[in-house]
Amino acid sequence: MTATLTTTEDDLYGRLKDVWDAPGPSAGVALVYQNVGVADGVAPPNEGTVSWARASVQTSLSRQTAFGHSTRRYENTGVLSVQIFTPVGVGLKQAKTLAEIVLAGFRGHRTTNGVIFRDMDLVDVGSDGKWYQLNVLVNFEVDEIA
Questions:
Q1: What angle do CA 107, 136, 144 make, to 5 degrees?
Q2: What is the pLDDT of residues 108-131, one digit of tens each?
Q3: CB neighbours (10 Å) of residue 144?
Q4: Domain 5-145 carries which CATH code?
């Protein structure tokens, strides 16, 4: 299977939404998507009392891996970043629980368009003002025929 950059982003955000919206600890936690706003029109809290998360996709490399007269194959790679924000003083356990949900939802998964999820990282950003921040980075790759 092959994917464009648009279908790749659709696959990434679609998978994240499925994982995040499943019954469990992430239910009811607002998830903001890159350049879209907040799911269900709820603004992210700014008073530091309610947990929320922000997702973005960064493509990092598009390498040509096959040459042909009519088609060429490109291997695209990038990172899905999920920033988790929880209230300082009470949020470390919840942040790690939410991070584990994201990790489990992408480990060993491959989308129907061929997006493969590889290495995953947790980055403990720490506290800043009213928020504790933990980032989940999910590396992906996908082939594109052009």
A1: 60
A2: 888 888 888 989 999 999 998 888
A3: 20
A4: 3.30.2000.20
